[in-house]
Amino acid sequence: MPKRILQGVVVSSANDKTVVVRVERRIKHPLLDKIIRRSKKYHAHDESNQYQVGDVVRIEECRPISKLKSWRVVGGEA
């Protein structure tokens, strides 16, 4: 089974080797027919502590690293 890859913005990098990434998706409201934004925050493993708040990164699903971390940062976007 392929691993999921998501793209989002780093909203916190206060913890050691961990970043919190907000991933936003756009869906169509079933009744109003408007495009609305939904977001979710993921804790991702950042081994070298190189990403800071505001960076756009890609995260990949991986085995559980801790209680909250099941994602790994695979790279940033230009």
From TrEMBL:
One of its GO terms (molecular function) is rRNA binding. The keyword Nucleotidyltransferase does not apply. GO terms for biological process: translation. PROSITE patterns: RIBOSOMAL_S17. The gene is rpsQ. GO terms for cellular component: cytosolic small ribosomal subunit. It comes from Kordiimonas sediminis. One of the primary rRNA binding proteins, it binds specifically to the 5'-end of 16S ribosomal RNA. Gene3D superfamilies: Nucleic acid-binding proteins. This is Small ribosomal subunit protein uS17. It comes from the Bacteria. Keywords: Ribonucleoprotein, Ribosomal protein, RNA-binding, rRNA-binding. Belongs to the universal ribosomal protein uS17 family. It holds the Pfam family Ribosomal_S17. Part of the 30S ribosomal subunit.
